[in-house]
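To fix ideas, we quote verbatim a fold written out as tokens:
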Amino acid sequence: MADAPDLAPDFNAWSCPLPLRDHPFVVMGHGGGGALSAELVRHLFMPAYGGETLAGLGDSAAVSLGGARLAFSTDSYVVRPLFFPGGSIGDLAVNGTVNDLAMSGAAPAYLSCAFILEEGTEVSTVGRVARAIGEAAERAGVAVVTGDTKVVDSGHGDEVYVNTSGIGLIPEGVDIRPQRARPGDVVIVSGPIGLHGIAILSVREGLEFGVELESDTAPLAGLVQAMLAVTPDLHVLRDPTRGGLAAALNEIAAASGTGVVLEERAVPVPEPVANACAFLGLDPLYVANEGRLVAFVPERHAEPVLEAMRTHPNGPEAAVIGRCVSEHPGMVVARTGLGGTRIVDLPLGEQLPRIC
């Protein structure tokens, strides 16, 4: 009998820089939204799939079908615990996909929902998640129209994993993507950062910070529509989830070949989040958010867009936090409160794994 072929992957054959070659096995950082995730996508998945649409690396893909421009996105949710202050895995599954569509300027319309269940999970737990998905979809104005269910052996899952995909319609004249950032653009964040990641951590680790922190999970399509009503010429929108605000800004800087100067004191960080991060040695810029967006807006439109955001329920604390510049292309630099500067690099992995 002939020897079976060696099916082990040849890592030396990959066209890939470090640190991916240093990790012949998947590690938690590969799912953290940082440098490891980016290299896995760019040097393993993209060569396997190909295509110009995928190469755009937006929160959702903009595709044409029957004369219409559609946004299409998919995401999986493995958060632990399943239920936390301010939301649940069900809320994240809906809001996360709705927000990915909205970051292309699309009006979200339809979702699919797939459950991967661990054998032995209480049916009542699955019911709670399903109801949360239905309620979140109603609040977001979308319909769940198809789905799937699979069950894995006990010990080979973590009760409930959820995958959602979504489609939405992109209005004519809207072209929002990370490659459109330009020097002079004003950088705006829609509200305080870090709440989701710290809320998850407090429940998971049993930590108390004097006040109960709640996740900021929320659908952002309505906020985006309010911004587009001011001008369709929004250059970039991004929801800073895994890897936080720092990862989102680095991705935009790299995609557009521009630099970003961040005014550190202007970034709205709630006091409990700042205190928790100081206690735990974390940087709020890298903590995940689930109901915030960062926008790159041409300077001439920045003030009216900011005003529109502040009058929307999901943006009353929107703030200008920096600018896009021609210097140091592909890099994000923060001006500190002491008058110095520091490089805000792409994180290697995720400070807090399993947050979405």
Summary: The first strand starts at residue 61 and ends at 65. The chain has two domains: 60-174, 178-343. The chain has nine helices and 14 strands.
